[in-house]
Design brief:
This protein has 351 residues and is α+β, with helices and mostly antiparallel strands. It is built from seven helices and 17 strands. Helix 5 links the parallel strand 12 and strand 13.
C-alpha cells in the first residue's frame, strides 16, 4: 500500500485534468485478482499491474454469461479521508447474486479487503473532493472452461478502479425519460434482482433508440401487466405525490439498489412516509416530483416522462424541492460535509 506521509490531499496525480473527467474508463496502475475452484473456499488474492488477462475461449462467463459485477465509489472527503459508502452492502449483494448464478460467494472479509487494497494502491487516481470519485468495479465470473450449460469448474474475482468525474457537470439537471412499451428489462423468476452481466446488454438497443429520439433513458415496465414501473435503465425509480415518497417494491425483477435503500432510510429519518409498492405509469405521471437513483449519479431528477402520446412535465423541468434536498443530504454524507448519523462511511486504510 502507498504510505500516507504527507496527508491524503497530497497523494494524487498532478498529470490528470480533473475538470475534464467524465464517467468513462481511465486505466489506472493496479488491480486485484484471486481465483478458486467450484466447491472450494476463496483465499485472499494479490495486487498486480492493471492490464489484460488470459482466459479460456470456453470460459463459462464467455459462453453462458456466468458472471456478475458491483459498482461502488471511493471518495475524498472534507475530513481529508478516503471512504467507501456502505461497501458491506455491495459485498452482500454480490453474494446473493453468486448464489443465483451458481458461483461460490466471495466472503465479505475477502471482498472488503480486496476493494480496500486496490483503492489504497491507486490513491493518486482519486479526484479531489468535488471533482469526482474513484469508481470501483468488483467482478466475479466463471473463468474455467465448460462445454454444456453448467457451472464453470473455476472462478475469478477481480477488482479494478477508474477515476470518474461528477455525473452532473455544472449542477444537477433534470432528465427526460421515455417509457418503453415494447421492451422489458426482466421477468418474474429471472435474474433481474441480481447484477448479472447478462441483464445489461439487452438494454443497450432500447436505450440507444430513446437517446436518438432526444430522451436521456428508457423506463421499463413490468413484463406481466405492462403497467407498473420497474427501473429507469439501470437505476431505481422514485416519485413524490402529496408529500409521500413511492418506489417500486422489490419483487425479484428489480435490482435492490444500495442508493435506493439509503434514500428510503434517509427520507424516513426526515419524517417522510415512504411506500414500497407497485407504481403504475399512470400514477407516476400524476406525481409532483420524480427521480431515479444509482451509484453513478446518486440522484437524477426527472424533468419529464413520455408514454406514447402522453407527456408529464414535473416542475417546469426544474429539479423538485424534495429531490434536491435528498441529493444534497446524501452527497453531504458521502463528502463528510454533513454528519454520517447512519454509520454508512467506511474509511479506507492508507497506511
Amino acid at each position: 500500500m502507498l504510505p500516507n506521509k504527507c496527508g491524503l490531499g497530497e497523494i494524487m496525480s498532478n498529470d490528470i485534468d480533473w475538470d475534464s473527467l467524465t464517467f468513462s474508463l481511465t486505466p489506472t496502475d493496479t488491480m486485484y485478482l484471486t481465483e478458486t475452484k467450484q466447491d472450494e473456499a476463496w483465499m485472499p488474492g494479490d495486487l498486480r499491474p492493471y492490464g489484460n488477462m488470459s482466459i479460456s475461449p470456453a470460459a463459462g462467463v464467455l459462453n453462458y454469461g456466468q458472471g456478475l459485477f458491483e459498482g461502488m465509489k471511493a471518495y475524498r472527503t472534507a475530513n481529508d479521508r478516503v471512504v467507501f459508502f456502505r461497501p458491506e452492502e455491495n459485498a452482500r449483494r454480490m453474494q446473493r447474486g453468486a448464489d443465483r448464478l451458481k458461483m461460490p460467494p466471495v466472503p465479505e472479509s475477502v471482498f472488503i479487503d480486496a476493494v480496500e487494497q486496490v483503492v489504497a494502491a491507486n490513491l493518486k487516481w482519486i479526484p479531489p473532493m468535488g471533482k469526482g470519485a474513484l469508481y470501483v468495479r468488483p467482478l466475479l465470473m466463471g473463468s474455467g472452461p465448460v462445454l454444456g450449460v453448467s457451472p464453470a469448474p473455476s472462478y475469478t474475482f477481480l477488482v479494478y478502479v477508474t477515476p470518474v468525474g461528477p455525473y452532473f457537470k455544472g449542477g444537477v439537471t433534470a432528465i427526460d425519460l421515455l417509457i418503453s412499451e415494447e421492451y422489458h428489462r426482466a421477468a418474474p423468476g429471472g435474474s433481474g434482482g441480481v447484477k448479472a452481466i447478462g441483464n445489461y446488454a439487452p438494454g443497450m438497443m432500447p436505450s440507444k433508440k430513446a437517446k436518438a429520439a432526444g430522451y436521456s433513458e428508457v423506463i421499463y415496465l413490468d413484463a406481466e401487466t405492462h403497467s407498473c414501473i420497474e427501473e429507469v435503465g439501470a437505476a431505481n425509480f422514485f416519485c413524490l405525490k402529496d408529500g409521500i415518497l413511492y418506489t417500486p417494491e422489490l419483487t425479484g425483477t428489480i435490482l435492490p439498489g444500495i442508493t435506493r435503500d439509503s434514500i428510503i432510510k434517509l427520507a424516513r429519518k426526515n419524517g417522510m412516509e415512504v411506500i414500497e409498492t407497485k407504481v403504475t405509469a399512470e400514477f407516476a405521471m400524476s406525481a409532483d416530483e420524480a427521480f431515479c437513483c444509482g451509484t453513478a449519479a446518486v440522484i437524477s431528477p426527472i424533468g419529464s416522462i413520455t408514454k406514447g402520446e402522453n407527456k408529464t412535465v414535473y416542475g417546469n423541468g426544474i429539479p423538485g424541492e424534495i429531490t434536491t434536498a435528498l441529493y444534497d443530504q446524501l452527497t453531504g454524507i458521502q463528502s463528510e460535509t454533513s454528519p454520517d448519523t447512519f454509520g454508512w462511511l467506511h474509511e479506507v486504510p492508507t497506511n
